[in-house]
Amino acid sequence: MAHLLTLMTGPQPEPAMWLPTAASSQAADVDGLFHFILYLCTFFFVLIMALMVYFVVKYRRKSATQKTSAVSGSHKLEIAWSVIPTLLLVVIFFWGFKGWMNLNVPPEDALEIRVLGKKWSWEFDYPYNGVSGAGELVVPVNQPVKLIMSSQDVIHSFYVPAFRIKRDVVPNRYSVLWFNPTKKGTFDVFCTEYCGTSHSQMLSRVKVVSRDDFKKWAETGGGMDGLSPVELGKKLFSSKGCVACHSITDDRMAKPGPALGKRFGKMEEMSTGEMVKVDENYVRESIRNSTAKIVKGYAPVMPPFPASSVSDRQLNALIDYIKSLK
Ligand SMILES: [Cu+2]
User: Which of 37, 74, 272, 290 lies 20 to 30 Å from 119, alpha-carbon distance?
Assistant: First the structure.
């Protein structure tokens, strides 16, 4: 309750009340319709409840012998309560339809970015020199962006509350979504289709930056150039989604995969009973061909990461990072 009060009375992000910052060109329209419906419903709710209470008091039965008075129809009243709501619904329909059309037709000059959803991370591929598999969506401000989305496994749903856009991401087909970011900043990306154990950690971010910063970012391979192998491995560990399934400490947290902290160099028991040393070759095989050896006590749920998804250079960096988790 106290939380609700601070939410309603505390500093309000614009445009109004409880909605997150509106950061795309579509957001204003969506918010306008949302508020229209909200206030319309509030108005009629208050009106109907107030009349009901008033009538209950005014026309209550006053004695045991009082007869119900005869009531005849009123054409005027019936026409009014049919026509007014119909007109209001027509307004809502066309307003919503216009917004829906707008959301479904990306502008010609939109920047195309591919989105891959998978358990449990988002990957973004750019039409630029090798910026692929980025874990965050980086886009220039005031530039329409068209997302061509697909899933590697189950149904996910791509949702950016600040842009007021959301669409299912389905295996074996493409779905399209577009937005025009109007504000610089960092905005949350959620998955809104329950997709398994770590669904709630299927998080990413959209970074809206200036055109110059975007160019710089794309030219440096998505901010991945010039990092040491361990730093690169650390970035990849979260952008490739390893972090959703593996903790990096050595305590056994309830994640679907084994904790990777302090694991390098140890002996590990496989489901076949075989003992294997966690060395470079074993980690390499675990990533490239994840079902070749299954760690005892775990389900074979780790997807393989072939060279098209994790390059050799990235693989080396991941191994160096896992090695560094002492
Ligand atoms: Cu998901």
Answer: 272
